[in-house]
Amino acid sequence: AMRAALVGYSSSEEEEEEGGGGSRGSRRLPVPESVLAMFEEERDEKRDDSALHGGRVRCFPHERGSWATHVYLPYQAQEEFLELLELLVSHARTYVPSVTAMEEFHVSLSQSVVLRYHWINPFMQSLKERLASFHRFFCVADQVKVYTNQNKTRTFVGLEVSTGHFQLLEMVSEVDKVMEEYDLPVFYKDPSFHISMAWCVGDLRGSLEGQCLQELQDIVDTFEDSARILRVQWEQIRCKSGNKFFCFPLR
């Protein structure tokens, strides 16, 4: 059976902000960016407001020098996709007024895991080697589905992949091997690959499934450009670790 609790988002996945700290004293030595970033994450942790980061919540305790890390396929939203998103969100709000549109779109190839700082470079090198042989490919993501994160504190409306599932499983298999090298959690068994479109606080599956879900599917099915905009060509795999991005182009 497909598991619906597939979204492991982390609150520390924020880009580096301006205004790093300086050391006190008469001599000011430059602080390495990597060190600044660690403290930046610590500061972010103290204001862990889910509204600031697309509804993601940390599923693990924060430790100094630990970097929330996530492997995914980035989706660059076109104007027509955002029009469809607006239609879906406005309709979902008639059932759950707190539904909020996502600002960034992707298909996950891993859970959100914790990397120690000194693991980052060798981890990325392993990913690069494992993913080097993959070619660009197409997916169709056109089936509306409702998900929760693992601890059911957030609900998501997503577009599930209906074609391209096999290629995604092959990629996950390679990413999982890298995770196992570092004793990190592998991806979910029987995953439902999807692009999350919107989110809300709490477990609201009861309100968003059934009648609402069918009406959202009807909106997708009748949207003029849906056949074109929901057929996605993937050109790169991306890994975000803390505030750093690593890109792995597909052949």
TrEMBL record:
Keyword Nuclease: yes
One record GO biological process: RNA splicing
Gene Ontology MF terms in the entry: lyase activity; poly(U)-specific exoribonuclease activity, producing 3' uridine cyclic phosphate ends
Region Disordered, annotated ranges: 1-31
Top enzyme category: hydrolase
Gene3D superfamilies hit by this protein: Cyclic phosphodiesterase
Main localisation: nucleus
A GO CC annotation given for this chain: nucleoplasm
Annotated EC: 3.1.4.-
Cellular compartments annotated: Nucleus
Keywords annotated in UniProt: Hydrolase, Lyase, Nuclease, Nucleus
Reactions performed catalytically: a 3'-end uridylyl-uridine-RNA = a 3'-end 2',3'-cyclophospho-uridine-RNA + uridine; a 3'-end uridylyl-adenosine-RNA = a 3'-end 2',3'-cyclophospho-uridine-RNA + adenosine
A Pfam family per the record: HVSL
Active site, renumbered: 106, 194
Quaternary structure annotation from Swiss-Prot or TrEMBL: Interacts with PLRG1, CDC5L and PRPF19.
Role noted for this protein: 3'-5' RNA exonuclease that trims the 3' end of oligo(U) and oligo(A) tracts of the pre-U6 small nuclear RNA (snRNA) molecule, leading to the formation of a mature U6 snRNA 3' end-terminated with a 2',3'-cyclic phosphate. Participates in the U6 snRNA 3' end processing that prevents U6 snRNA degradation. In addition also removes uridines from the 3' end of U6atac snRNA and possibly the vault RNA VTRNA1-1.
Family: Belongs to the 2H phosphoesterase superfamily. USB1 family.
Name this protein carries in UniProt: U6 snRNA phosphodiesterase
Annotated organism of origin: Coturnix japonica (Japanese quail)
